[in-house]
Amino acid sequence: MMNIEALLNLKGKVAVVTGGASGIGLAAAELLASAGAHAVLLDINEAQGEAAAAGIRAQGGLASFFRCDVSSADDCRRAAADIDAAHGRIDILFNNAGIIRRKTVVELEERDWDLVIDVTLKGVYMLSKFVIPIMERGGGGSIVNSGSGWGLKGGDRAAAYCAAKAGVVNLTRAMAIDHGPANIRVNCVSPGDTDTPLLRDEARQLARDEAAFLADSAVGRPLARLGTPRDIAGAVLYLASDLSAWVTGSVLVVDGGGIA
User: Fold this and answer.
1) Fewest C-beta in 10 Å: which of 47, 70, 79, 144?
2) How far apart are CA 239 and CA 181, in angstroms?
3) Which of 66, 161, 162, 185 is catalytic?
């Protein structure tokens, strides 16, 4: 009989989570830490990131924080080197950081386009570039990239975000092919609308009442509710753990049936 606890046990592993100060990133860091990993939170918000890591430690988990702008090569190189120096390994990378601008291509300024692409897509490439050699040296690992339902289908007034997330989906497949021989699995978790600061910021961008916007976001889903950060974190834990030992290059949609 399989030992489910052993398959989910991440003790001794180092798990890096971008956008780890809040939302899905924080929920994933908390769950990975509860499974025994040392959760390393990366974010541009230092105060919130330090507080999030302290919160995990207060609950008995292992956690630390490093400031990192994932769109910056220098920041990503430095973060990977600092984590390697502190822990000597990186086993799990959750490329979660992202940003959205709710505009059409006509409404988008070039700086909006660049910001969304740089953080949401380039950030996946940039941090992976410096983390993968560390994983290879340690014998392998698991990378989970954060996609979106809108990386698989279109959405209104979200042109740059849809483009970035579609890029993440196919980048995931390419990375899985390239790095599978080094025992590095690369998968994508694609959330639907989830109650996070990012989703609430969308209501502001669209000049919508927040409560009404959140309620509308759940309409039409078979499970008839918004996702929670913990809903997505569960999928991340699955893809990070040995439960998914033969899963790579896959896209796991977690959206309450929204695009079923």
Assistant:
1) 47
2) 18
3) 161
